[in-house]
Design goal:
The protein has 118 residues and is α+β, with helices and mostly antiparallel strands. It is 30% helix and 36% strand. It contains two helices and four strands; from the N terminus they run ββββαα. It has helices spanning 74-85, 95-117; strands at residues 5-17, 33-44, 47-60, 66-68. The protein has a four-stranded antiparallel beta sheet with strand order 1-2-3-4. It starts with a strand and ends with a helix. The structure holds zinc ion (ZN). The site of zinc ion has 9 residues, from loops.
Length: 118
């Protein structure tokens, strides 16, 4: 079954965790982790409608272990919050809403202009 609507996510940002204090929980290699932020959006017929927040996690470049947001240590969660707030939601996440409002607002504007000048 094909879903014409739902949610999708795209990669927004990856930052290295080069603090030697940060170790991989799995292989204990220091400074081997990167943290990524992904944006989620609702789509309808694959047209992004609006943003529904961000998610993310870390990956160890040594042992390739991936940790999701909820699996992060409190220290890494703080780092994640900082990276997340430094990551902007792309404007195209709202393409559908912009398109819809343009479709609603433009005819209204046009009819107003016609009423004033017509
Ligand atoms: Zn590792």
């Amino acid at each position: 079954m094909i879903f014409f609507y739902g949610t999708r996510s795209t990669h927004l940002k990856t930052a290295p965790l080069d603090d030697p204090q940060i170790q991989c929980q799995h292989c204990h290699t220091a400074g081997s982790m990167t943290m990524s932020v992904f944006g989620k959006y609702a789509h309808f017929f694959w047209i992004p409608l609006f943003s529904i927040g961000k998610t993310g996690g870390t990956q160890c470049n040594h042992c390739k272990q991936v940790l999701r947001k909820r699996e992060l240590s409190p220290q890494l969660k703080t780092t994640y919050q900082e990276l997340k707030s430094a990551t902007k939601t792309p404007v195209w996440y709202f393409s559908g809403l912009i398109l819809l409002s343009a479709l609603i607002v433009l005819p209204l504007l046009a009819s107003m202009v016609f009423r004033i000048f017509g």
